[in-house]
Design brief:
The protein is α/β, with parallel strands linked by helices. It is built from nine helices and ten strands. The strands form two sheets. It has a five-stranded mixed sheet with strand order 2-1-3-10-4. It has a five-stranded mixed sheet with strand order 7-6-8-5-9. Helix 2 links the parallel strand 1 and strand 2. The relative contact order is 0.19.
């Protein structure tokens, strides 16, 4: 073999060794479109139980993924996102809070409504105060918890109370629906206006009293992949799961209603 040919062969051999060494230390990239790695989901407090279940399913369906949730009031989550908190997905309990995110340019695409939720009156198990509807919440001495007005469950409560012509002064205004529900569970109030799904999740401690005016205050729940998502592939896959037939089954079991027209 001539000297130039031997030199070229040696260079090629060295290159192969270097590439082989890199391959030993660096895992092969995932196939295009195959979700992997961490995904962070900001979701309304009312979605805690159903999304936790969906997160476990997502991790089982996509080995190598890890789902982390930030559950809180939708208004608080929207503020965190618009102030730069890193997240992949936002699921809101109402369109108004989603609009705060989309109007600020933080959504990748158009949000999709994946479920609807409706209010009930949560009372301690056995309903000791015999609450039968919204009018009973205005009885003297009855202690009632509501969500704050900027929170979706608070806005829905205002709509329902206005529809019923009921005026009351709550003893507390909570920053998310779980806070209002906790007041009932702890015996600090006699009743609270919460989502049907939350009352169902705590059915060992509370009863849910249905009332007709709740039909005037049904909340659509939208979801979207965020524009600055650190893991957009996994984010899109999680949204797809939420909107899929298995995802809808989990949400229905939790007490959510399907989107209008579905």
């Amino acid at each position: 073999m001539s000297r130039p040919v031997r030199a070229l062969a040696g260079l090629l051999a060295a290159t192969v060794l270097v590439l082989a060494g890199c391959g030993a230390d660096t895992p092969a990239p995932a196939a295009d479109g195959d979700p992997t790695g961490p995904v962070t989901v900001f979701a309304a407090a009312s979605l805690t139980e159903s999304f936790t279940a969906l997160g476990r399913r997502f991790e089982a369906d996509h080995p190598g993924t890890t789902v982390t949730f930030n559950f809180a009031g939708s208004s608080a989550l929207a503020t965190q996102i618009t102030q730069g908190a890193p997240a992949d997905v936002f699921a809101s309990a109402a369109p108004r809070n989603m609009a705060a995110v989309t109007d600020a340019g933080h959504a990748a695409g158009t949000p999709a409504v994946f479920a609807r939720n409706q209010l009930v009156v949560a009372v301690p198990e056995g309903n000791p105060q015999r609450v039968a509807g919204l009018a009973d919440l205005a009885r003297p001495g009855l202690k009632v918890a509501l969500c704050a007005a900027q929170v979706p469950c608070g806005a829905a409560a205002t709509t329902a109370l206005d529809a019923a012509g009921v005026r009351l002064t709550p003893v507390t205004l909570e920053q998310d629906v779980k806070g209002a529900l906790a007041k009932v569970k702890l015996g600090e109030v006699d009743a609270a206006l919460v989502y049907r799904t939350d009352a169902r999740s705590a059915d060992l401690d509370v009863d849910g009293v249905e009332f007709p005016e709740s039909a005037r205050a049904v909340n659509d729940c939208p979801i979207v992949v965020l524009a600055d998502a650190p893991n957009p592939t996994a984010a899109r896959a999680f949204v797809e799961l939420v909107r899929s037939a298995p995802g809808r089954a989990v949400l229905t079991d939790a007490g959510f209603q399907p989107p209008s027209g579905s």
